[in-house]
């Protein structure tokens, strides 16, 4: 592929050409049969946009706020691990692109640059994604370091008491590079055995499978930062999250990499939004490849979306420039979608702008 990519999906092909198979499989793969991985994208295709005509759309405002922070568009960078496997500049390049595009980057605990190095590289608005380890003191130290280095929120990932079975990584015997955030706290080299990948060895040896709702109180006690809970997929869990006073929720199935046959995130977004009732912001990730996808998520109640794989494809293909171009592509597509749908600002995107499969079923019954 010699031409410049014209959409995010074409960056995926460039990434495939640029990366060793082990690393490409790591970034693109999902759990087991990969049903959820595929459904994350397919579910967007079943949602129809219902445009409004003859509105004055000469000027389009894509800006919004998340937890009070102003960003240029309702698109944030999802926590994506091991970015140095995609490009030597890894998370540094991604943070700089986020800064250039005036949006928020969520840095993964499993970053290949330390949270201090990422904080020092630019002035991007940064959140820190947290896994809770068996040794709670390690998690507490990570939270303190994030707070001391200007990170603005903690994104607690709650869907990984164990690692999902990612069979491509098992076959490839994925080798995990040293995790800079854990240097001096945990062993930073984990080698796969005959049954799994290095990442699976890392997870099984370190993650706290006992962490539960009651432990959110502990996390709140060790930081003044707002806490977003990432991994909500049901009304019931959304209500429980409100009861423990989280500051926001991310509807996420870990990109289809944890529990296979869990629902596509866009298919349950509205259920979570309804349960939350506007009390805290609701964000969503998973399967977002087009500006139309962002528009649909906003119409169903998301305050913003997070993109992960698309960013890594840009990073693998063209480094910082590639991440910047991916974000700009999504911004341009969203702006066009809004103009063609009669929306001058993200606040004007409403539920009436989309028709879901459920809506269609209701219509057929009338």
Automatic annotation (TrEMBL):
Query: Where, subcellularly, is it found?
Result: Peroxisome
| GO terms of molecular function | (S)-2-hydroxy-acid oxidase activity; FMN binding
Domain of life of the organism encoding this protein: Eukaryota
SUPFAM superfamilies given in the database record = FMN-linked oxidoreductases (SSF51395)
**Which cofactors does it use?**
FMN
Q: Where does FMN bind?
A: 108, 129, 157, 230, 252, 285-289, 308-309
The keyword Oxidoreductase is assigned to this record:
yes
Q: Could you tell me the keywords of this UniProt record? A: Flavoprotein, FMN, Oxidoreductase, Peroxisome
**Chief localization class?**
other
Q: What class of enzyme is it?
A: oxidoreductase
- Which residue numbers delimit the FMN hydroxy acid dehydrogenase domain? 1-359
What does the record list as GO biological process? Answer: defense response to bacterium; hydrogen peroxide biosynthetic process
Q: Does the keyword Transit peptide apply?
A: no
> What are the GO cellular component annotations?
peroxisome
Provide the active-site residues from the annotation.
Answer: 254
Quick one: signal sequence residues? none
The record's catalysed reaction(s) read: 2-hydroxyoctanoate + O2 = 2-oxooctanoate + H2O2; a (2S)-2-hydroxycarboxylate + O2 = a 2-oxocarboxylate + H2O2; 2-hydroxyhexanoate + O2 = 2-oxohexanoate + H2O2
Which residues make up the binding site for glyoxylate?
A: 131, 166, 254, 257
Q: What is its EC number?
A: 1.1.3.15
Write out the similarity annotation.
Belongs to the FMN-dependent alpha-hydroxy acid dehydrogenase family.
What name does this protein carry? (S)-2-hydroxy-acid oxidase
Provide the species name: Gossypium stocksii
């Amino acid at each position: 592929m010699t031409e410049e990519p014209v959409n995010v999906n074409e960056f995926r092909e460039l990434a495939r050409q640029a990366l060793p198979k082990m690393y490409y499989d790591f970034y693109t793969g999902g759990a087991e049969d990969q049903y959820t991985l595929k459904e994350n994208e397919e579910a967007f295709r079943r949602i129809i946009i219902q445009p409004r005509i003859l509105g004055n759309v000469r000027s389009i405002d894509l800006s919004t706020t998340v937890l009070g922070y102003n960003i240029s568009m309702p698109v944030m960078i999802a926590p994506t691990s091991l970015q140095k496997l995609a490009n030597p500049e890894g998370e540094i390049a991604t943070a700089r692109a986020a800064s250039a595009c005036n949006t928020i980057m969520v840095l993964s605990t499993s970053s290949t640059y330390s949270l201090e190095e990422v904080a020092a590289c630019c002035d991007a608005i940064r959140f820190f994604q947290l896994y809770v380890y068996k040794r709670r003191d390690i998690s507490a130290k990570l939270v303190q370091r994030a707070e001391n280095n200007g990170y603005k929120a903690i994104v607690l990932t709650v869907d990984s008491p164990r690692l999902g079975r990612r069979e491509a990584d098992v076959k490839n015997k994925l080798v995990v590079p040293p995790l800079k955030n854990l240097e001096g706290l945990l062993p930073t080299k984990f080698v796969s055995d005959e049954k799994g990948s290095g990442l699976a060895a890392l997870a099984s040896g370190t993650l706290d499978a006992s962490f539960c709702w009651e432990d959110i109180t502990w996390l709140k006690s060790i930081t003044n930062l707002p806490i977003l809970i990432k991994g909500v997929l049901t009304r019931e869990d959304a209500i429980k999250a409100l009861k423990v006073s989280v500051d926001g929720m991310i509807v996420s199935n870990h990109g289809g990499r944890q529990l296979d046959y869990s629902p596509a995130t866009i298919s349950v977004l509205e259920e979570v939004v309804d349960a939350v009732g506007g009390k805290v912001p609701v964000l969503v990730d998973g399967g977002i490849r087009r500006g139309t996808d962002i528009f649909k998520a906003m119409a169903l109640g998301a305050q913003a979306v997070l993109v992960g794989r698309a960013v890594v494809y840009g990073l693998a293909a063209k480094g910082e420039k590639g991440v910047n171009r991916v974000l700009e592509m999504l911004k341009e597509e969203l702006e066009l979608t809004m103009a063609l749908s009669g929306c001058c600002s993200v606040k004007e995107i409403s539920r009436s702008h989309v028709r879901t499969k459920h809506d269609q079923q209701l219509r057929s019954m009338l």
